Amino acid sequence: MISVGEAKAILSKSCPIGPSTSVYLSDSVDLITASDITAPIHVPSFDNSAMDGYAVSWQKEPIPYKVVFTIAAGDVDNVRIKSGTACRIFTGAPIPKGTDTVIPQEFVIKNGDTISFDAGKFAKGANVRTKGSQSIPGDKVLEKGSRITPGTVGLLASLGIAKVDAFSPPSVGVIITGNEIKEVGTALESGQIYNTNGPIISSYLKKMGMRSFEVFHISDDPITLLKSIENITNRYDFTIISGGISVGDYDYVKKSLAEVGVEELFYKVKHKPGKPLFAGIKSGHMIFSLPGNPASVITCFIQYVKPAILQWMGFKDVWQPASYLQLETPFSGKSQLTHFLKSKRNKGKVAILPGQESFNLNAFGQADCLVEIPEESPPLKEGDIVATYEW
Ligand SMILES: Nc1nc2c(c(=O)[nH]1)N[C@H]1C(S)=C(S)[C@@H](COP(=O)(O)OP(=O)(O)OC[C@H]3O[C@@H](n4cnc5c(N)ncnc54)[C@H](O)[C@@H]3O)O[C@H]1N2
Ligand code: MOO
C-alpha cells in the first residue's frame, strides 16, 4: 500500500495533459491558454478623449478658444481644427486633428461660443488616450498556461480576439455500480439505498465546469460490468467508477479493469476513508475507481481525481494547498493511515465533526473542509495546528 504523498506523485507524473482546441471567447473562462497570445491591433486604435470637455491645441498662455465643432464617441475622425479654436468632445471620441489636449468641462469658463481655462493646470497631452497606449501589434498580452478569467476575456475582447487556443476540459464517464442503488425520486425496496455518489460526483464535475459528462448506472453483473467498463474507458477521457473495487464476492471492478487492459498506476492508498482507491491509465485515458462509501468518494475526488482533471486541463498548481488552522476539537485516533475528516471552519479555527464513519452522511450538510491527520500522528489536542482542504 502506498502513502498519500506517493499516490499524488504517481498521478503528477502519469496523468496526461489533454489536447487544446480553439474556443470561442464566450466559452473560455476558467480554461488555460495553450499558446502565447499577441495583440493583433493597436489598442486604443485611435487617439481618443478620456473626459467630457473641450479638445484644444495646448498653449501656455491663457487665451479664449472659439468652439467650432462637436465630436462624440463613435463619430468619424475626419476633422481638423485651427489653432486657437476648440472642439466640444465627449469621452471616447476621436481627438480631432489640430488638437492635442482635452480640458474637462468642469475646468472651463464658458462665455457665449468661447471658452477659457487656467492653462497652468494642464500639461500638453492631458486627458488623451493615445493610439497603442494599451498595446501595439505583436505585444505579448498573455503567456501560454494562463488561466482565463473574466478580466482576461475583457482584455482579449478589447483586442478583437474572438477565439482562443485553450486546453479543453476532458469528457468524463461516471459509472455507478451496485444492485442495491436506486435513484432519488423512486421508492426504496428492502435492501436498497439511494444513489448519493452519482449526485456527489456530478455536482463536483459541474462545479469544475466540465461540459461533457454522462452518468451510467451498471448492475453488479460481471459481463455487463466488463462490457460497460470497456466501452466507457474507450470513449471518455476520464472514467470515474463508484463502488465494487474492494474484496467482496461482487466486487468485479478491479478484475474488469485488468481484463480491458487498464494499466494500474496504484491500488490502495494508506488513507481513510477510501483505502481501496484504484487509479489507472489506458491509451491516454485516465480511470479512477473510488470505493463506494460516500465519504470515500468525496475524499478521493478532492484529493486525487480533481487534481488529475486540472492537470489534464493544463493547470500548473493542481494540488490544493492546505490552509493551516487550530483544532477546536481533540483527535485521539492513532493509526498507520492518513485520516481525512469531515470538518467545519469557524473564525479561523476548525472543528472535526462527529460521525466520521465512511457510510455516514450526517456531517455532509455542515462540513466545509477536510482535516488531514498524517500517518502515525500522535493524539492531537485543542489548539494544535492541522492542515485543512476545501470540501
Ligand atoms: N473484507 C474487507 N472488506 C472491506 C474492506 C477490506 O479491506 N476488507 N474495505 C472496506 C472499505 S475501507 C471500503 S471503502 C469498502 C469499499 O468497497 P467497494 O468499493 O467495493 O464499494 P461497495 O462495496 O460497492 O460499496 C461500499 C458501501 O457504499 C455504498 N454505496 C456504493 N455505491 C453507492 C452509491 N452510489 N451511493 C450511496 N452509497 C453507495 C454501498 O451500499 C456499501 O454500503 O469496502 C470495505 N470492505
Ligand atoms: O476506505 Mo473505507 O475507510 O470504509 O471508506
UniProtKB/TrEMBL annotation:
<keyword id="KW-0500">Molybdenum</keyword>
<dbReference type="Pfam" id="PF00994">
    <property type="entry name" value="MoCF_biosynth"/>
</dbReference>
<dbReference type="InterPro" id="IPR005110">
    <property type="entry name" value="MoeA_linker/N"/>
</dbReference>
<dbReference type="InterPro" id="IPR036425">
    <property type="entry name" value="MoaB/Mog-like_dom_sf"/>
</dbReference>
<keyword id="KW-0501">Molybdenum cofactor biosynthesis</keyword>
<keyword id="KW-0460">Magnesium</keyword>
<comment type="similarity">
    <text>Belongs to the MoeA family.</text>
</comment>
<protein>
    <recommendedName>
        <fullName>Molybdopterin molybdenumtransferase</fullName>
        <ecNumber>2.10.1.1</ecNumber>
    </recommendedName>
</protein>
<comment type="function">
    <text>Catalyzes the insertion of molybdate into adenylated molybdopterin with the concomitant release of AMP.</text>
</comment>
<dbReference type="Pfam" id="PF03454">
    <property type="entry name" value="MoeA_C"/>
</dbReference>
<feature type="domain" description="MoaB/Mog">
    <location>
        <begin position="173"/>
        <end position="311"/>
    </location>
</feature>
<keyword id="KW-0808">Transferase</keyword>
<comment type="pathway">
    <text>Cofactor biosynthesis; molybdopterin biosynthesis.</text>
</comment>
<dbReference type="Pfam" id="PF03453">
    <property type="entry name" value="MoeA_N"/>
</dbReference>
<dbReference type="InterPro" id="IPR036135">
    <property type="entry name" value="MoeA_linker/N_sf"/>
</dbReference>
<dbReference type="InterPro" id="IPR036688">
    <property type="entry name" value="MoeA_C_domain_IV_sf"/>
</dbReference>
<dbReference type="InterPro" id="IPR005111">
    <property type="entry name" value="MoeA_C_domain_IV"/>
</dbReference>
<dbReference type="InterPro" id="IPR001453">
    <property type="entry name" value="MoaB/Mog_dom"/>
</dbReference>
<dbReference type="InterPro" id="IPR038987">
    <property type="entry name" value="MoeA-like"/>
</dbReference>
<keyword id="KW-0479">Metal-binding</keyword>
